[in-house]
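dumping the sequnces here before i forget
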Amino acid sequence: MSSADQPIVLGFETSCDETGVGIVRGTELLADAVATSVNEHARFGGVVPEVASRAHLEAMVPTVHRALETAGLKLGDIDAVAVTAGPGLAGALLVGVAAAKAYALALGKPIFGVNHLAAHVCVDQLEHGKLPQPAMALLVSGGHSSLLLVPDVATDVRPLGGTIDDAAGEAFDKVARVLGLGFPGGPHIDRAAREGGDPDAIAFPRGLTGPRDAPFDFSFSGLKTAVARWVEAKQRAGEPVPVADVAASFQEAVVDVLTRKALRACKENGVDHLLIGGGVAANSRLRTMAVERAEAVGVRVRVPRPGLCTDNGAMVAALGAELVAAGVEPSRLDLPADSSMLITDVTA
Amino acid sequence: MLLLAFDTATPAVTVALRGDEGVLAEHTEVDARRHGELLAPGIEKVLAAAGCSRTDLTGVAVGVGPGPFTGLRVGLMTARALGDALDIPVHGVCTLDIVAAAVAADGAFAVATDARRREVYWAAYDVTGRREGEPAVDRPAEVADRLTGLGVAGQGSRLYPEQFPRALDPELPSAAVLAELTARLLREDPERLLPPEPLYLRRPDAVEPGARKAVTQA
Ligand SMILES: [Zn+2]
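..and the predicted 3d for all of it:
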């Protein structure tokens, strides 16, 4: 059923609040089962690590079986196990790593502890085929905002820049809260903006875009504060807050900076493929603006479908399969969960 | 039978293998911060030491706490996944009962383990070694008032010698004891075995946000 270059890999992802179990054969997606505890976190306005960790333990075995059923496989068909070793929430990672080790040990198969960010990059292979190398990757979510140069997703991933304060998705969450919209903020802001919001209504600041600023780093904290100040001024003046305009203008500021920097990185590194991943990649304005601006400079944009952009097990399995095919050494059974794993380490 | 037993609800990562005749191998390491790293290799070590294969296993016994959450979950996740992948039953045992089963006391006693935040997980046991009531988490002084001079096994008595002056052995649970206890319960009283559900005894630390604070000073 499988072969050396088309290994069947079972992937585990528990770095945040999604319990993801995916199965791939080479670059073919066979199953992507996700259980989420997002509703348990909503009333706290953010992910509560202990709540997420408890939910991972309860969801794991049933999610494995949902994935196996979808793929029409048995555990005995699995050739290798892959798991997010980091970065992420320490206690949450630990549950996935423990599960992956136990399955690998019980099945007598190799285990690959992998980097969550590299997995976000690799997942696109399941949808759009082999990633052209080198590629540029813009990863934006509630937990990360990174610009990566990817000469080889199995062995060589280089960070060009990242956020110096809030992750992009976090800014969406906080602004959604200011506007009285729900958690997580991304989809709510996106929807509000599309309901007649004018992206040019308010000129919100673009962080770190001055001539002396780090060209590939991001900052969203100042923007978030500027939005809050603007809304509060309206409220104090007793005027209605134009929610759609604020959402659209905030979103425009985020998306403008993300796409501008990503394309500059492509140009400076002579890269003509830009991959966008992470939960914020589901944002409709980000997708549209990235494609428009990229086309203008001859860069092809690749964005996996929304379900593969958010955290999932298939992305981990995809990277695991890539590592098997590349002949990378498996991890040892004492591999640690590393909450601050560096992106330069694709495997643990 | 070939029973794999382990407990990760205290600083000890303890693993043992028991065959029909008794315990075949035990491996214990004490490192409160490395449960996730030590457990799977520990399982491989006891299998290798006993010359057994993972596919020979007929059951898993796991300590279900109470214990600090991250370590406890490593044990439970491992037990559940092994049970699932090998299609064998997983039996839970209260970690305090594992400590209690190794106490050689000539009367009633108690077990107290470290719950961090200056509290202990604890339970009292009668003269036959049977637990009285459910395990609880409390401050050492409150527990000491309830125990009135009983000997106390477990790390709690080492951490709080003023409250628990009569320290009993053992300090930490042993998987060999867990394996023996589970084998006996399977034989004599299987109803007393627990499902592999964690005994957290505490709610997650999480505070619902109040009204949002303005960033501008009014
Ligand atoms: Zn992610």
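The beta strands of chain A are 8-13, 18-25, 28-36, 80-86, 111-115, 135-140, 145-152, 156-162, 273-277, 300-302.
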